[in-house]
C-alpha cells in the first residue's frame, strides 16, 4: 500500500538523522561542550515542533480542558517509558557494559517516540507526517551525535557502534506503523488528541531528559543558548518551506 510505504519512509528519516549524527563522531573526539550544544539545538527543534505544529492543531479543534488532558496523558506516557528503562537498568549490574546498554536503550526509546509522532501525524495527513519526520530528522542529528559520543567515550568499538545505530530502524518503523494503522480510521478528535498527547511526551522528554543531559555535559554559555535558538528557528524555516 502506498500509504504504508510513505509511513515507512517517513519513519526512516529520524533514523537517518541519528545515524548521520553518530557517523560524524567517527571523525573526531567529541568534547562535552559540543555535546551540550548539540543537545540544546535538539531541544530547540523539539519545542518548535510542539509550539508551531502540534499544539495549535489541538487548540483549533478541541476545548482547552481537552487539550490539557491529552497533553497530561502524553506526559504520563513518557513517565511510563522512563519507568520501563529504569526497570531494565535495575535488572543489570552497574558496570561499564550495562551503562552502555542503558545509553542505547534511551536512544531506542527516543526513536520509538519519534515513530509514534510520525505515525500519528501521518494518520492526520501525509503532509503533516512528512513535516514531523523532517523535524525529527533535524532533532535526531544532534541527539545521535550526543548519544554516540557517550558510547565513544565508553570505548565501545566502531563496529559495535555501527551495528547499534543500524538496529535503531526497528523501534522507529514499528511504532510508526502501529500508530498509523490504529489512528488512520479514527475520528478527527481522536487523531487530534493523539497529536496533543505526543506534544506532551515530546515536551517532557526535551525539558527533563535532553536538557538535563545537556547541563550535565557542560554549563550553559552563549554558544549553548545560541544553539537552542538556532534549533527553534531552523524548524520554523522548515515549516515555512
TrEMBL record:
The chain crosses the membrane at residues 6-25, 37-55, 67-88, 100-118, 162-183, 189-211, 223-240. Keywords: Membrane, Transmembrane, Transmembrane helix. The keyword Nuclease does not apply. It comes from the Bacteria. The keyword Disulfide bond does not apply. This is Peptidoglycan-binding protein. It comes from Marinicauda pacifica. The lineage of its organism: Bacteria, Pseudomonadati, Pseudomonadota, Alphaproteobacteria, Maricaulales.
Amino acid at each position: 500500500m502506498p500509504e504504508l510505504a510513505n509511513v515507512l519512509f517517513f519513519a526512516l528519516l529520524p533514523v537517518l538523522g541519528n545515524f548521520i549524527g553518530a557517523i560524524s563522531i567517527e571523525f573526531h573526539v567529541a568534547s562535552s561542550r559540543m555535546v551540550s550544544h548539540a543537545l540544546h539545538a535538539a531541544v530547540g527543534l523539539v519545542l518548535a515542533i510542539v509550539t508551531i505544529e502540534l499544539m495549535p492543531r489541538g487548540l483549533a479543534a478541541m476545548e482547552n480542558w481537552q487539550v490539557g488532558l491529552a497533553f497530561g496523558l502524553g506526559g504520563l506516557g513518557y513517565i511510563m517509558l522512563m519507568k520501563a528503562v529504569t526497570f531494565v537498568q535495575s535488572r543489570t549490574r552497574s558496570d561499564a557494559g550495562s551503562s552502555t546498554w542503558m545509553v542505547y536503550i534511551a536512544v531506542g526509546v527516543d526513536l520509538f517516540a519519534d515513530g509514534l509522532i510520525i505515525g500519528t501525524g501521518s494518520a492526520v495527513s501525509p503532509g503533516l507526517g512528512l513535516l514531523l519526520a523532517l523535524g525529527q530528522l533535524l532533532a535526531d542529528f544532534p541527539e545521535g551525535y550526543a548519544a554516540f559520543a557517550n558510547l565513544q567515550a565508553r570505548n565501545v568499538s566502531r563496529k559495535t557502534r555501527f551495528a547499534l545505530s543500524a538496529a535503531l530502524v526497528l523501534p522507529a518503523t514499528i511504532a510508526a506503523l502501529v500508530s498509523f494503522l490504529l489512528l488512520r480510521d479514527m475520528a478527527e478528535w481522536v487523531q487530534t488528541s493523539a497529536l496533543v498527547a505526543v506534544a506532551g511526551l515530546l515536551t517532557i522528554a526535551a525539558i527533563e531528559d535532553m536538557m538535563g543531559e545537556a547541563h550535565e555535559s557542560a554549563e550553559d554559555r552563549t554558544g549553548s543558548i545560541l544553539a537552542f535558538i538556532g534549533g527553534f528557528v531552523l524548524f520554523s524555516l522548515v515549516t515555512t518551506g
